[in-house]
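Table S5 (text form). Sequence records supplied for joint modeling of the two-component complex.
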Amino acid sequence: GAVVSQHPSWVICKSGTSVKIECRSLDFQATTMFWYRQFPKQSLMLMATSNEGSKATYEQGVEKDKFLINHASLTLSTLTVTSAHPEDSSFYICSADWEGFEQYFGPGTRLTVT
Amino acid sequence: AQKVTQAQTEISVVEKEDVTLDCVYETRDTTYYLFWYKQPPSGELVFLIRRNSFDEQNEISGRYSWNFQKSTSSFNFTITASQVVDSAVYFCALSEARVDSGGSNYKLTFGKGTLLTVNP
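The corresponding structure-token record, covering 234 residues in total, follows.
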């Protein structure tokens, strides 16, 4: 149980375009989902926390208008990277929280902006 | 603010050696959870263990064991008889409760990770 999926697993896009990444909890309802970013050989950094039906809470230094998060249902959260630039190239990981201190992580999405 | 320190950036061992990965944390919360995750080259995080702040019992799971010392704020991870498949980045993480506009939830803070390489 407690499986989280992400789609796509990898994506290449051109600079200036937008990319949407989906995060789904497959066998449970997640009231809270989290989005992390991980640069090569670095740790995971929390970008934002999204609760179903409310606005996302962004961490300091994360641009709200650039990284749009929508948590439309208890099983789906989306992260849209708007007007992507090469410096946005990274590994994006989502996680879902099910009524506890534990987060279940998705497999990650590797974004490359050319 | 909470903090997790993994002082060992990289460790290299030969197969069958025992290896200990260190984790030191800082928090003002009295209730918190500590985690260890494994991240193989594929990138997917693999959950290894969760320990709450009130349970200081050491835990063993196969070749893995964890030593939680609240007095020194440490939560170290030992792999016994290491294998090549253990090669990965290992992250220690700490969760703290927080309340924001969306309600209460828990924020995970990760250490910088330790790259373990097990050579045949």
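Note: The two ends of chain A are 37 Å apart (CA to CA).
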